[in-house]
Amino acid sequence: MSERFGEQINPQKQFYTEYYKKETDDSPDDTRWSLACSFYDVLRRGALPNFKCLDIAAGTQKFELEFIRQFGDRKIATENGNQSIRDCLQFTTFDLAEIPKSTLYLERLKNGSGEPSNAVSQSHHLQADANEMPFKDNTFGIAVSNLALDFIGYEAIREMKRVLKEGGRAIINLHHKDMLMPSREELDKEIRQIKIDLSQTSQVDVESVIDARQERLKLLEFWEALDRNDKLFKNRNQILDIFGDFGFQIDELNFKYDASDPAEAKNWWWELVLTKLESRSA
Question: Is the entire prediction scored with pTM above 0.85?
Fold first, then answer.
């Protein structure tokens, strides 16, 4: 399968580089917590090729911080006996955005800021493109990604498979299409209105109000590009078909939602647990 989504990567890089200058959160809390619980469940069951973990489009490493905070002292079986998760996991995180080290949670712990009790033995972050991951084949025993892989495209799925070892696992959260965006009609209407408002601004307008409108416009145009290029998965069957075609065994595919408000579409997502199948010899 050679299909790739049509949107270029650079606009995403620019968008998120600017975003992380102002924000450290990039996903709902419930999605990170759900991913953390599933990640721990995979770890405690064992049978991983190794404990090298790759986080694809990791942002500021907030998932890693919250995972270690909750599960870091739990013991799991390793070839060296039972060890705490914080001592045996080796985190490699990367993101397309250029994120200052000072805002990366695990990097801050290395430098003595943050909460020392949440430090991990080994972690490394780099700026990279998920469509061309700078790692050797069959490197990682496990991969995670929270509400990012479907923004990037099919080539990132192929790359994730390449860098995972045979028998390696992946836990992936994907947007439900209704989670992210208003209807196309509502989206177009709001974009038009903000452009009109910005064209009519005067020196009387408060600068912060103008900035807020401009930031909202950037976000809406980003959503519009996602919709135009059909980036988000439409339904359960499409997810099963695509990841299956790339050579993954689908162990779990669960529809998730914020239990405090299950009727609210913006709180819906898909959680996927995968295993990289062994290569078939010719």
Answer: no
